[in-house]
Amino acid sequence: MQSVQLSSVPPSQDHILELFHKFQKQDTDQNYLSPNSVRRIAEHLNLSMAQVYGVLSFYHMFSYRPRGTYVIRLCDSLSCRIVGSLDIYSFLRKELGLQRDKVSEDGLFSLEIVNCLGSCNTAPNMMINDQLVPNLTVEKVKDYIHSLREEAKNEAV
Amino acid sequence: MLSLTIDNKAVQVETGTTILEAAEKAGIEIPTLCRHEDITPLGTCGMCMVEVEGDPGYSRACITEARSGMRIRTHTRELRRIKRKLLELVLAAHPDDCLQCIRHGECELQKLAEKFEIRQLSYDQYTRGLPIDSSARGIVRDMNKCIGCGRCVEVCQNVQTVKAISFYGRGADTIVSPGAETDMGSGVCVNCGQCVVYCPVGALHEREQVDDVWGAIENPELHVAAQIAPAVRVALGEEFDMEPGELVIDKIYEALKLLGVDTVFDTNFSADLTIMEEGTEFLHRLEAGGPFPLITSCSPGWIKFGETYFPELIDNISSCKSPQQMLGALIKTHFAETRSIPPEKIVSLSIMPCTAKKFEADRPEMNSSGFKDVDYVLTTRELARMIRQAGIRFDKLKGIKPDKLMSAYTGAGTIFGATGGVMEAALRTAYELKTGEALENLNFEAVRGLEDTKTAAIPLSGQEIRIAVVHGLSNARTLLSQVREDLKSGGVPYHFIEIMACRGGCVGGGGQPIENSLYQRFKRAQGLYAEDTGMPVRKSHENPEVAALYKDYLQQPGGELSHHLLHTRYHHRDALSI
Amino acid sequence: MKRSRVSISSYAMESPDIEAYLGIGGYQGLKKALHMKKDGVIQEVQESKLRGRGGAGFPTGKKWAGVPQDEEIYLVCNADEGEPGTFKDRYIMEHTPFLMVEGMTIAGYGVGASKGYIYIRGEYPAIAETIQGVLEAARKQNLLGKNILDGDFSFDIEIKRGGGSYVVGDETALLSSLMGKRGFPWMKPPYPTEKGLWDRPTVVNNVETLTYVPLILAHGAAAFADIGAPGSPGPKLYSVSGNVNSPGVYEFPMGVSVKELLKAAGGVQGQLKAVQIGGTAGPLYDDTALSMQLDYDSMNAAGGTLGSGAVVVMNSKTNMAGVLDVSMRFFAEESCGQCFPCRYGTRQLSYMARRIASGSGEQHYLPLMRETGEVMRATSFCPFGQSVCTPLNSLLDQFGDEVEGFIRQQDYIREVI
């Protein structure tokens, strides 16, 4: 992972969410904001730690705790629930051995239940990191998880 | 002027007045929970909703401006029903332990529940189950009780600009926090306790040391020696239904003795002593041509703030300890020797209007004598509790005199409790010591009062001495940011600056009786100035016990023993520590 | 789908291409606008009777006309599409982004703004990247930035990404978030057009609203006003999802009936049980919804709201206790927490709905939930908390028997998360 360059970001508070996204993506592969990241952001924007954590904690895409390398966000709003999000959830729980907001033991996956992802015509939906994975079936999810596990294995080698 | 009617009562108000303020003028009390007269209204709680004829729905009286011709009803059947339900919602999320709570009897939520006659809760109750944060030396944070009114956040971020806490989380999980699963003690909190005095419930309160003090008093082997801060003597009476500003120091001496304290001294004595030490320091700097400004150091909330946010100015801060710490050091040395009591058997107790004094007493360097200067600090509120626990009828006490040696004080010492008081005391002495002349008028009106920043230029032996007085840390921040800039470009903006962390000065400290409004602070300060005016001796350098102390023990102000016992050092603190 | 040129979908492309867009008449609207006075542009939009497409339905021209003179005026495009069942703005940004950007530019000119922001919800990262490319392409063609089309008008746009919060779709909460704070709404008045970003006049418009603006300028206000319901004219993008055969975005003249819309969406899968119209704070209807007309005035008259134009269809397999749980949970998870009634109220409502759905419901919950909704309607700080009672009451009104039976039998749905 690479260190985030701050020089191109103006030091005003309206850039805080942008910095959260940047640091969360680039600083580690656990999709979270370490205390050091938060510190660098506070320093750059001339805010106190309390203020930065205060904003961070409001927006659910950010985490101050390490998450999986792949953050799965499964939608369970009404349109997705109507067409079977619970089936996908049941499967993910068993397959990954995860409850919501938990990280798998190998650190590869974490599961979050989110509200409407804005693609209700392709429900059920989930996102894996920045990628929307639409039209979910248990089979599709199974294949996806499998290929991600393969990818992780190859990268480790 | 606008004319409107509230509950059929006609009232006239200026443009810009809120409905709530208009109702107050009309003698009508609209219930509130998140609102405080000293703080910008936040409109979070919804308890102040009123019906405005012609306007849709209901309006928040605290943030809605009055308009001419408004017809308002504050307590219709519907409104009462709605507010009762709203209170039930709040209470269902609040711990059920009023009887064990520090704010029992003084809690705004309790008062509202009583007002609305809540007899049952329709909702299932729940609490957050969070651990209590007692990491800060002066303040305890219990987020199970936080109702989310936002006053503390507003005060810490905007009034004090310490920014140690913020709203954290979202929705019903919202609490107030210094960070993600971090505690106050390891962060930038300066323990000023302004959050505590504005908290409507028991979510933020002082770290209690009453039991420790009882233990010391009841231990026959220990000798407890106490000191009382200036600001306490005009505020403690409020805990016993007396008026703010009423001078009750004689009763305090008596109450302490009745509680079992062995020796009673007075911090006003060491306030006079501080003037000697700091006055000398100032005159040295005048001679040496700097470094300017000299900044006062008796407010431990300000000290931590300065160490954190203005480390470049650390060398400008007076090396003098605060009066509390000076007297504590002398209790463990001079007093111990005088009375032949081994210092390890002495418990040094101070009664303070301040929560940061608990932090100051525990600063590791505050033991230059080899023993801790101050062992326990009790806030005004804690002392009141002890007095009640002992069954003492405080208001009925006749009052006694304190113990000789380190309790005599002048008018200059007592005004330390008000913003501008230290500066005024210092000027009275510095002027006479430098010019050799007596001052005609001892009152320096320019440094008195609640204005944010007070400045003056004092002619002193052909030199113009520029002074500034600020209270409330946001004003300190503004002033020092300017000073920092001026110093960079080589200017000398001020020679002497007094900084008090709390608005109003120590009379508004974090340990003072709740209902610590600016109005109360003003009245308390008035009490101190009145005491000063009536005193026979009003200049620190004319304090006979101070003179005796130098003659018999310290030798001279700024001398070797003074430096060892009565002076200290500061260190840079990380503004981003968590 | 309409063939008329006054329709967004007629400009749809697989992926954005500025040359192609210019080729089919793109930026004609801006060119016309720049030849008019600012006030003329505002007047054109006023005459079109375009009403905000985000959900509030406020007349757009009126909003623009209320902007005072100032050296610093901001235009904000609200692309925080978080309303469940709504995905029309995604459609626009994926398939007709240049139309949106052109609309912003025209709006900027009309209100006197020199800076625009597009606040894109955090969950649309690919779209944010797409729009970044769109802005660069527009700049290259001198259609954005300094001295647009070599004229005096300069206007540029910056993308701001959100971080995962529904409530920042509300106008003032969005501005709080854009400034980098927690997404708390603030009290109106003063309105953002008076005091918005950093206390400057700010116009906030929904993506779809701005996307119709170039069509109004290019084809004239009358062409727009002639389409659909007279009180709220123009085409509208409807989002249809749930138990229908072809869920998707459908563009119809304002006022299309639910029946016709569902037909276009391939018809209901199974037997129609319930329809929720307008988004998560909209009422739930039984099959009487079929005859309803989907425009602002008709829906308001029927005691409902068009909202974002989302239509979520539920068939007879849908368990209403489950719907209640999902609905109340949404509000509890998304409440910003600023005001007491909403913070505590949504928590209690979702708690009770949860217990009902998991077999531990109690009969007194139902009247208590209604009462809680009423208290929230009376005392919440912003429309979020004020509107919770709408889906709650309508669900209990239409399907109260089912929910009561569920409680009586201590029945439970298969999973609560």
Relevant terms:
heterotrimer, B: 578 residues, alpha/beta, Ubiquitin-like (UB roll), Rossmann fold, five-stranded mixed β-sheet, four-stranded parallel β-sheet, 18 helices, 13% strand, C: 417 residues, de novo design (two linked rop proteins), 3 domains, 17 helices
What would you note in describing this structure?
The complex is a heterotrimer of chains A (157), B (578) and C (417). Chain A has helices spanning 16-26, 35-45, 49-56, 78-82, 85-96, 138-156, and strands spanning 70-75, 102-103, 109-114, 126-128, 131-133. Chain A has 157 residues and is α+β, with helices and mostly antiparallel strands. Chain A folds into 2 domains: 1-66, Orthogonal Bundle (Arc Repressor Mutant, subunit A), CATH 1.10.10; 70-156, Glutaredoxin, CATH 3.40.30.10. Chain B has helices at 19-25, 77-92, 108-115, 151-159, 194-198, 210-217, 249-259, 267-288, 300-309, 323-339, 356-361, 380-389, 411-414, 421-435, 473-488, 518-534, 544-554, 560-566, and strands spanning 2-6, 9-13, 49-52, 59-60, 71-73, 139-141, 166-168, 175-177, 204-206, 223-228, 263-264, 294-295, 346-352, 376-379, 453-460, 463-471, 496-500. In chain B, the strands form 5 sheets. Chain B has a 5-stranded mixed beta sheet, covered by helices on one side. Chain B has a 4-stranded parallel beta sheet with strand order 11-10-13-14, with helices on both faces. In chain B, strands 12-17-16-15 form a 4-stranded mixed beta sheet, sandwiched between helices. In chain B, a hairpin with a 6-residue loop joins strand 7 (166-168) and strand 8. In chain B, helix 8 crosses helix 10 (323-339) and helix 8 (267-288) packs across helix 14. The longest helix of chain B has 22 residues, at 267-288. Chain C is α/β, with parallel strands linked by helices and 417 residues long. Chain C has 3 domains: 9-225, Rossmann fold; 235-315, Roll (Ubiquitin-like (UB roll)); 321-408, NADH-ubiquinone oxidoreductase 51kDa subunit, iron-sulphur binding domain (de novo design (two linked rop proteins), Up-down Bundle). Helix content of chain C is 43%, strand content 12%. At the B-C interface, helix 2 of B face helix 13, helix 14 and helix 15 of C.
